[in-house]
Amino acid sequence: METPLSDRVVQTEEKEYSYLNLGPTHPATHGIFQNVLKMDGEVIVDAEPTIGYIHRAFEKLAERRPFYQITPITDRLNYCSSPINNIGWHMTVEKLLGLEIPKRVQYLRVIIMELARISDHIICNAVIGVDTGALTGFVYMFQQRELVYEIYEEICGARLTSNIGRIGGFERDFSPKAWAKINHFLVEFPKVLKEFENLMTRNRIFMDRTIGVGGITAERALNYSFSGPNLRAAGVDYDIRVAKPYCSYQDFEFDIPVGINGDVYDRFMVRQGEMWQSLSIIKQAIAKLPEGPFHATVPDFYLPPKEEVYNNMEALIYHFKIVMGETDVPKGEVYHSVEGGNGELGFYLISDGGRTPFRLHFRRPCFIFYQAYPEMIKGSMLSDAILTMSSMNVIAGELDA
Amino acid sequence: METATRTYSMSEKPEGYEGTGFFATSLEKVVGLARKNSIWPLPFATSCCGIEFMATMGAHYDLARFGSERLSFSPRQADLLMVMGTIAKKMGPVLRQVYEQMAEPRWVISVGACASSGGIFDTYSVLQGIDRIIPVDVYVPGCPPRPEQIIDGVMKIQQLVESESLRRRDSAEYKAMLNKYGIE
Amino acid sequence: MEVVEQEKIVGVINEKFDGEILQTEMLYDFLTITLKKDKIIEVIRHLYQHPSTQFQYLTTLCGVHYPELKQIAMMYQLHNLVSNVQVRLKIYLPEENPTVPTLTPVFAAANWLERETYDFFGVIFQGHPNLKRILNVEEMTIFPMRKEYPLEDQTREDKNDTMFGR
Fold first, then answer.
1. I need a labelling partner for A53 at 20 to 30 A (CA). Which of A181, A387, B93, B125 fits?
2. Tens of pLDDT, residues A146-180
3. Please, what is the angle between helix A382-391 and helix A103-131, to 10°?
4. A24 in contact with B at a CB cutoff of 8 Å?
């Protein structure tokens, strides 16, 4: 085994390297992870990351919870875009059960997931701006996140960790107030996004800070199993919504923005492009929204409405069985992945027929691509390293689980 | 239609003796008034509650109007340690070191269920409440708490700051409490 | 996945490593191949390089503990981005001494994934550049994801189990 960086003896040449400890608590690292940087003056020679400061044992916790109680746990993976995690988990369970989901539910899920993707990219791009010194963009864009929070509140009651939907659909249809808020968002947000673009994308200072910084080639990115905007910025157009369409994404027309160099500027621009594409998908979904039920008919997993529970014997029995966990789950091994805010978020579920999973493994994109960080910052300056970290959108909850 | 008019004030004038060009009151009250309206927080944001804190600092809920415009990331210059998010056992010594570096008078607010008691994570790797390692003044429950709740917690801290005696930090009970945590 | 595709992948493995495959099944439309544990890295490298499979993307790898079989399984999931084909490879290791060669020479992404599997299950990866705990505290002596270890911290005194019945 290698000796850790901090224990190594200084090199034999005249050069003395200094070690700088970046984190775990640091204003510029958005999340708690530590990096011990080996510096030659201001230039970084090597880095040794340490993670696990917020390890909450999700995979062990999931082995003790029934399927519908795991949704709040999946919330806390990538908490900036928690509806995507929730819906991805529900789709995994629906795949295990072999359910057929009505079209209306799928379109509503697409609208929610694209809103979540927009709110995740808002944070990432605004934070890239803050790390180059542009605090104004952050304040403007965060105001728009408040609009998205209000939409979530109308639909599920919570702002951030949403626990949205149920296995089989949604708990209630979207109210007229929710539609009013979504339409208001679709009118207000493009104006602010355009203003943010005008501030940042052709800004001389921003371009000098970000072009050519923290780049990675497509071959190395594929070897490190990058996915999501980080991979698309390197030039590979792998998007799960197109490669393995789920939830009726094949019904919508959208482009996939792809970068060239894989540096910070390309990641910023890819996320900007994706926000515009998400807006277009939401508009298409609203225009083509079919009528129908807002949940699938799966009485074994979907709680019946309360009026029926009080009046109808079968509904009472189903309610009891669901809450006490007596329903039969088929045995099986299933893997389902969705396009999260950071890449391919996968759920590998092994069920042995009991009320809790036998094994649940989360394929977390942040954990996998953060391994490439020491390679990406080798030879760059300290402030470039900070910028690279924030442009990769590392969320501590997803890193450690 | 009758509308009741209510006047709000951020700070009340303390009791004292007033005259033309002077106002006499006790030093404690003046110091309390000055301190409570200029608290410099140290946001120790670890997870989801940190994002709600970012929303609280944003333009909609605006914690800056309570005097917390300048966030201090260095513990040496901070008054209020806001612990927001889950603290794992690996992070415990780091939190303890940050708390010990703060200078008196210092207050601690524990935001969120995870910081107050471990939250929904009753597991082998999560510290079940930060009050196992540092003394806490105000607990804000919620998962995550709404920005209004965080502001309510800060306002309770303001009440504590305003009414604190100047000799509290040197008193025997305070030192005994710190000793219970093993902090000198 | 069509039968033709499955047979092609199985054929590619069998042409060089005959007898390594123990079982092939389609679980929820996903080809799952269970292999013997000795030559797994060579099989993966062969699938990486062979022109008709070219599985050059590692989706994930993880461990699964089966206490009744007294075995720890390793699951590798590979993906061919160009032809959009995925495959899952599983091997079973004995519980007392789970060792397997490392996958890091083939995929750089396997580095931390293997460290996580070591941290949770105790699987030793021979040849790994930096095999130490990644998510848990360094001083921990047990491997917490194994089924015999409980979820909660056992050193707490303040929980009253008689009230809430565990």
1. A387
2. 999 999 999 999 999 989 989 989 988 999 999 99
3. 170
4. yes
Q: How far is B141 from chain C (nearest CA, A)?
A: 19
Q: Which residues pair with C50 in a beta bridge?
A: none
Interchain contact, C112 vs A224, CB within 8 Å: no
Q: Kindly report, residue by residue over C38-78, the tens digit of the pLDDT.
A: 889 999 999 999 998 889 999 999 999 999 999 999 999 99
The two tokens of residue C126 are: 């021979």
Tell me which residue of C117, C147, C149 sits closest to C133, measured CA to CA. C117
- In angstroms, the CA A122 to CA A141 distance is 6
**What is the identity of the amino acid at A217?**
T
ipTM confidence score: 0.93
User: Would the CB atoms of A143 and B60 count as touching at under 8 Å?
Assistant: yes
Smallest CA-to-CA distance from A384 within A198, A208, A204 is with A208
For chain A, give the mean pLDDT: 90
Residue of C137, C144, C154 lying closest to B89 (CB–CB): C137
Question: Where are the alpha helices (H) located in chain C, listed in sequence order?
Answer: 3-16, 40-49, 110-121, 161-164
Q: What is the largest CA-CA distance in chain B?
A: 65
Cα end-to-end span (Å), chain B? 62
Q: Name the token pair of A357.
A: 């999973």
Q: Which residue has the higher pLDDT, C163 or A368?
A: A368
DSSP A58-99: HHHHHTTS-GGGGHHHHHTTSGGGHHHHHHHHHHHHHHHHT-
The single residue listed with the structure tokens 């928690």 is A82
Q: Whole-prediction pTM value?
A: 0.93
Least confident of A325-329, C9-13, C57-61: A325-329
